[in-house]
Design goal:
four-stranded antiparallel beta sheet; 2 domains; D-amino Acid Aminotransferase, Chain A, domain 1; alpha+beta; six-stranded antiparallel beta sheet; Dna Ligase, domain 1; 232 residues
Length: 232
């Protein structure tokens, strides 16, 4: 299984933090919708992935030593041509080398730029006494400043997932605000249930973040992901 291979490879390399590409492989296997993301180890591979996925694309540095790519200039949005992709590949590697000269660089991830949607945040962490729990909230200011989030212990029942989505104060943004169409709350609930099953099946995972997840009138899509393993 892909998930077993990904975790085993990280363990062999002495890592507890999975790269974005590895994290998405795990979550896709768990049934959580994630944007297709490919690893490019060379400029040629980056161009090939971009052509296959279709422009515009998003490109990010992939390194187990760089957890927040945007902090080091390691993200390029709206890459629209071969020339831009080639330049972005060079610039991302250079930015990573400047920020962390000793970082191990796996390459650059390439993903199609997703259509705008309502941003939500989904995560999992562990309480020393009660075990794994899930978090759900709306993205941006609502989660960072207002701390507008809901929590439930794993395993989730369907009623738990439904309650989590509806108890955040920003729920009106999901239900349709000022003429905007409502998002697919059933798909959000299904993603939470899939994540609950995933957490149960993988006790070796200490925490994970899906931020953001884009919610649409039909379906949801996680565009960024991070998985952290328990220590050896």
């Amino acid at each position: 299984m892909v998930g077993v291979d990904v975790i085993a490879r990280a363990r062999k390399e002495g890592r507890t933090v999975l790269t974005e590409v590895e994290s998405k492989e795990l979550l896709r296997e768990a049934g959580i919708p994630v944007v297709e993301t490919s690893l490019a180890r060379t400029s040629r591979e980056a161009l090939a992935h971009a052509e296959r996925l279709g422009y515009p694309v998003v490109m990010k540095i992939v390194s187990p030593d760089i957890l927040h790519q945007s902090d080091v200039g390691g993200v390029r949005l709206g890459v629209r041509s071969q020339a831009e992709a080639r330049l972005a590949y060079r610039e991302l590697l250079a930015a990573a080398a400047r920020a962390n000269p000793g970082a191990i660089l796996h390459g650059v991830s390439v993903q199609r730029q997703a259509a705008p949607g309502v941003e939500v945040v989904v995560g999992m962490a562990k309480d020393p006494q009660f075990g794994p729990f899930l978090m759900f909230g709306l993205g941006g200011v609502l989660v960072e400043v207002l701390n507008d989030v809901a929590f439930r212990l794993v395993p989730l029942a369907r009623r738990d997932a439904r309650a989590m989505v509806r108890e955040v104060k920003g729920y009106p943004l999901l239900a349709g605000h000022r003429g905007q169409p409502p998002v697919d709350t059933v798909a959000l609930e299904q993603a939470l249930l899939a994540l609950s099953r995933f957490a149960e099946a993988h006790p070796e995972i200490r925490e994970l973040d899906l931020n953001p997840v884009l919610a649409y009138p039909q379906g949801v899509l996680a565009v960024d992901a991070r998985v952290v393993l328990e220590g050896a």
